[in-house]
């Protein structure tokens, strides 16, 4: 059985003090991790303090990015091994903002996924999509190729530690979520691709999230779908009470 996940992605928001204050406000009100997994991805500078504040609670702390080497002359990058050793559980990789603003290719993302897994982290791998592709009918080809390239060379054991997130660009930060059927189709395409690459059992074990303008108003409808195992939430995860409402949807 796949345990659903509610994951917040704060992006480049919150100071260290604000991050810790948020964790302290929510940590005692979360369900057990075996019923519903809760995770918060914060800015790199906040991660250790967030982890320390969350110790003893079910909340898992996630990085928003990491590099594909554990150490070396890579000024400004973050080591996946150092993240793992600091108690960080997940790392978001391949977010559309990383692909668009920082020119991350599928090849780089594939290297990062392998390095994160080897270090002990559980990647949350994002797959974007555009309305243009959807109108042109090429979204199936696009999504399938992202998964084939990003997950290339991963073992079945590896892929079961990866969570995927279907995040259409037109829905990210716009207030206009994909409708539940579009969201479900994106997640279904990812699962079918994993089934093709491995087998049905493996695909049935992998968790696939939807992300893009998830709110307290639409979360129930989005998650009430057998192909959607949870949500990756940006803007609506920035307020602790709203995050708790999402968790208790
Ligand atoms: O990672 C989260 C997504 O980019 C969604 O962001 P949003 O909920 O602000 O649309």
From TrEMBL:
Positions that bind substrate: 9-11, 173, 213, 234-235
GO process annotations (BP): gluconeogenesis; glyceraldehyde-3-phosphate biosynthetic process; glycerol catabolic process; glycolytic process
Active site positions, chain numbering: 95, 167
UniProt KW keywords: Cytoplasm, Gluconeogenesis, Glycolysis, Isomerase
Cellular localisation: Cytoplasm
GO cellular component terms attached to this protein's record: cytosol
EC number annotated for this UniProt entry: 5.3.1.1
Reactions catalysed according to its record: D-glyceraldehyde 3-phosphate = dihydroxyacetone phosphate
InterPro entries reported for this sequence: Aldolase_TIM (IPR013785), TIM_sf (IPR035990), TrioseP_Isoase_bac/euk (IPR022896), Triosephosphate_isomerase (IPR000652)
Biological pathway: Carbohydrate biosynthesis; gluconeogenesis; Carbohydrate degradation; glycolysis; D-glyceraldehyde 3-phosphate from glycerone phosphate: step 1/1
Gene Ontology molecular functions: triose-phosphate isomerase activity
Main location: cytoplasm
NCBIfam families linked: tim (TIGR00419)
Family statement: Belongs to the triosephosphate isomerase family.
UniProt function note: Involved in the gluconeogenesis. Catalyzes stereospecifically the conversion of dihydroxyacetone phosphate (DHAP) to D-glyceraldehyde-3-phosphate (G3P).
Subunit field text: Homodimer.
Protein name as catalogued: Triosephosphate isomerase
Native organism: Limosilactobacillus frumenti DSM 13145
């Amino acid at each position: 059985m796949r345990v659903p996940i509610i994951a917040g992605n704060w992006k480049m928001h919150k100071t260290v003090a604000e991050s810790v204050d948020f964790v302290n406000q929510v940590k005692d009100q979360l369900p057990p991790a075996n019923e519903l997994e809760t995770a918060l991805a914060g800015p790199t500078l906040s991660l250790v303090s967030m982890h320390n504040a969350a110790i003893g609670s079910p909340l898992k702390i996630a990085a928003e990015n990491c590099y594909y080497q554990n150490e070396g002359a890579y000024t400004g990058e973050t080591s996946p091994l150092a993240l793992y050793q600091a108690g960080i559980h997940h790392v978001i990789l391949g977010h559309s903002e990383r692909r668009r603003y920082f020119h991350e290719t599928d090849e780089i993302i594939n290297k990062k996924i392998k390095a994160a897994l080897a270090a002990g982290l559980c990647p949350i791998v994002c797959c974007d999509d555009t309305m243009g592709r959807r109108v042109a009918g090429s979204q199936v080809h696009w999504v399938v190729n992202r998964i084939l390239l990003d997950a290339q060379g991963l073992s079945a054991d590896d892929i079961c530690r990866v969570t995927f997130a279907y995040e259409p660009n037109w829905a990210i930060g716009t207030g206009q979520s994909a409708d539940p059927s579009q969201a479900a189709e994106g997640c279904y395409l990812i699962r079918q691709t994993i089934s093709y690459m491995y087998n049905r059992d493996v695909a049935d074990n992998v968790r696939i999230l939807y992300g893009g303008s998830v709110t307290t108003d639409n979360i129930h409808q989005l998650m009430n779908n057998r192909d959607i195992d949870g949500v990756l939430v940006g803007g609506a995860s920035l307020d602790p009470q709203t995050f708790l409402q999402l968790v208790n949807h």
